[in-house]
Amino acid sequence: VDEFDLIQRYFRRPAPGVAVGIGDDGAIVGLPPGHELVVVVDTLVAGVHFPDDITAEDVGYRALAVNLSDIAAMGAEPAWMTLALTLPEADAAWLDGFAAGLFGLADRYGVSLIGGDTTRGPLTVTVEVLGHLPAGLRLLRGGARAGDVLFVSGTLGDAAAGLADVDAKHAAARQLRHRFLRPEPRVGLGLTLAGRATAAIDISDGLLADLGHVCRASGVGAVVETERLPLSAALLECVGFEQALRYALHGGDDYELCLTLPPDADLDEPEITRIGTITAEPGIRLLADGRFTEVAADGYRHFGDAP
Amino acid sequence: VDEFDLIQRYFRRPAPGVAVGIGDDGAIVGLPPGHELVVVVDTLVAGVHFPDDITAEDVGYRALAVNLSDIAAMGAEPAWMTLALTLPEADAAWLDGFAAGLFGLADRYGVSLIGGDTTRGPLTVTVEVLGHLPAGLRLLRGGARAGDVLFVSGTLGDAAAGLADVDAKHAAARQLRHRFLRPEPRVGLGLTLAGRATAAIDISDGLLADLGHVCRASGVGAVVETERLPLSAALLECVGFEQALRYALHGGDDYELCLTLPPDADLDEPEITRIGTITAEPGIRLLADGRFTEVAADGYRHFGDAP
User: Fold this and answer.
1) Which of A87, A173, A284, B159 has its CA 20 to 30 A from that of B256?
2) DSSP B140
3) Is pLDDT at A54 greater than 50 in this prediction?
4) Average pLDDT for residues B149-167, to the nearest whole number?
């Protein structure tokens, strides 16, 4: 079998509503009237962005999930994706698994593959997701205002613990591992927040690092009440409160949303937890036991997540 | 200097007309009313898609040029790009050169960088270009009809000869090397052809290979009159007629356009040369000295140019 045929077999799939998909020099799609285009892109390098020993299916899932998380943080509806896949060899079993992980998630969010490039080299996966939102209904980092209320979705720290070497014999540890391997992008929540939240970002580098981006972009500071941080029972059981708190503040890979709402926002949204307040004073302070601690807005980060 | 700051220094530039550019979770852009979005993507791997010894500036130029060539083949106007750059290290001199090559070309075509990702790993460059065209004015591979006239732009075979080991002491050889290193995307020609040509493709894999794609997509065949093939004086001087013909038919990397026009098309376009005819009979035949030869539609091709 020619390598081209092999690759086409895996990635040529029906793309409903796409004017011109894979198979020409480029793809052509139409945006809904009155909508703007949203573009996100993320690269995963084996051994850098994920452990070498995770399955091909997990790699395929992850390559799309991290991009859908960015789409969610923009408040957009995902629609199309392209795939630039660099592989050491055209291994059918690996491609099977990769495609299952990628398209399993893509189908759940109605995302069609419309183009790509497959090249030989060290395993590197770049997925770009294109989405859209009604013109003007943007969810950006720079809109937080003093007095806004700070929220996060889901629970924090699970993925960082799941990436670390926790004892996989226990159900709780397996649950954390799953949170690392299969982050669930908050696309629906992002759509709910568009036009309501004043700012949003996805937590890929850790809460403090990503909240720091929001604060700098908005020209504000924040107080985080550590006792309010949503910690899962599995995380507390596996690593105890002190370490759970460290993972929640500094650990990356959660792909939850961190967002700010005006104090009078009337949003009944069970997915999110209030964790603090936006302040006019710059910097991030932790509030615990009635005492403030100034913290550096750092967190786990790679060589570069965005130029 | 933090590696993040370094990278931002190179890739954060003014992006006129872009609603939201680099610096948020994603970019937001608006399409001109009545236009569709065109998406192309290509990955370059060092040592696979270009020799290891070409300059960083040449790599930056090439990464965009190959994508603009696809945009040209779609008849679209390029507008935005994203860059996924995987680098062994954040080397300032290399980034300087790369950015100069990339943005030098981008500025000429009015293309703004709106997003990207920079990661550590073996040198791999994925550029995606987004463009647009008036809805319905598509230039695809599948529209060639029996009786259409076959054209190519520019001259063929120069890049393949320039990639091969030709004696760089001669001016003609340096000219071929330049054709390989600095392919000029035919964006203006593509815009002229949209709505006029029945089919178009860019010649990245070699004339016969890419014409083969057009024939299969259109359900037709073609006759190529080899004596009509546009060969440069530099190519003929360096390698002689027989080898020049082989390069012109099979050599890749020219990034010229191969296109078909209806027989009654009235197009006064000095950039293109008539080289043959589209036939109802499938397959590609060469016509030379009044004799036909059936040929295989092969050419230089990598592991995969498009999934």
Assistant:
1) A87
2) -
3) yes
4) 92
Report pLDDT digits (tens) over A178-211: 999 999 999 999 999 999 999 999 999 999 999 9
Looking only at the bridges linking them, the beta strands covering B112-120 and B77-87 are parallel
Does the beta carbon of B280 lie under 8 angstroms from any beta carbon of chain A? no
Question: Best mutation site among B3, B39, B218 for testing chain A: the one with the most A CBs within 10 Å?
Answer: B39
Token representation of residue A201: 């970002």
Residues in A closer than 8 angstroms to B70, CB to CB, are 25-26
Q: Does A274 touch chain B (CB under 8 A)?
A: no
| Subunit contact B37:A31, Cβ cutoff 8 A | yes
**Residue count of chain B:** 307
| Chain A / chain B CB contacts < 8 angstroms | 246
> Token pair of A263, please?
């104090």
Taking the Cβ of residue B187 and every Cβ of chain A, the question of whether any pair is shorter than 8 Å is answered with no
pLDDT category, B302, cuts 50, 70, 90?
Answer: very low
Tens digits of residue pLDDT in B201-211: 999 999 999 99
Q: Return the residue matching tokens 């629609």.
A: A79
pLDDT of residue B89: 86
Residue A53 in tokens = 């020993």
Distance CA B247, CA B156 (A): 7
Separation CA A120–CA A127 (nearest Å): 17
For the segment B115-143, the average pLDDT, to the nearest whole number, is: 93
Residue of A nearest to B71 (CA): A26
Shortest Cα distance, chain A CAs vs residue B227, angstroms: 28
**Cβ–Cβ gap B27/A39 under 8 Å:** yes
| Separation between Cα atoms, residue B263 and residue A296, nearest integer Å | 70
- Write the ipTM: 0.91
- The model's pLDDT over B46-61, given as tens digits with 9 standing for 90+, comes to 888 888 889 999 999 9
Asked if the model's pLDDT at residue B178 lies above 70, the reply is: yes
In contact, B276 and B156? CB cutoff 8 Å = no
d(CA B299, CA B250): 5
How far is CA B201 from each of CA A253, B251, B255, rounded to the nearest angstrom? 41, 15, 9
Cβ distance A74 to A40 under 8 Å?
Answer: yes
Interface of B with A in 137-176 (CB under 8 A): 138, 140-142
